[in-house]
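Appendix B, record 7
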Amino acid sequence: MKQHQEGYFILMADIISSSRHKGDLLMKQFKEVVNTVNEKHKELLLSPLTITLGDEFQGVALNLEAAIKVIVALEEVIVLQYKPFKLRYVLNFGQIETPINHEIAYGMLGNGLTEARELLEQVKHHRGERFIVKTGNQRQSITLQKTFILYQWLVDAWKPADSQLIGAFLQESDYKVVAEQLGKVRSLMWKREKSLKIKEYLAARDLLHLIASA
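Structure tokens (predicted):
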């Protein structure tokens, strides 16, 4: 999907209940997640994810498909790096009147950024929901929104103690290969694949990508 001339895909997020965590440690962990995604997926971003208010970031994605890939990457990095927090996201398609800053997501102005900021405030009052998507196409937005409900349900069911195993399954979905890599019994890995709902997670992730690229 090509970038629309009339707008940009703006991504904002903040840490849920950040006040419940130790400030310095939380900021360090947050920066690690943001830096990891910026480094691994810089080709997906017109303006990199930039921490703005301590527990929030903003950035501009190349297109919708890229924005969804960045969100999924953030969610997976949080799991794989054992981070003790969850993010709340807004993806908004809107205008940016000033030139795109390709080095840092500062100094840009436009209705799209204002709308994204307002949506981020709104999602804080949506109990349990972590994703708001406005793509400029109502049908597509609703479809992505509903798919993210399923995606969130799967991710939020995972426990930190299972992070290593989840990471192995995300790298190699065949439970027999995972069993060999981790030196585990195949039958146990088959059961863990089922209990962690790895296939369902991969299906939800693929569905997000398919909707965004349509």
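Remarks on this record: Strands lie at 8-15, 45-51, 56-61, 87-94, 131-134. The first helix runs from residue 23 to 40.
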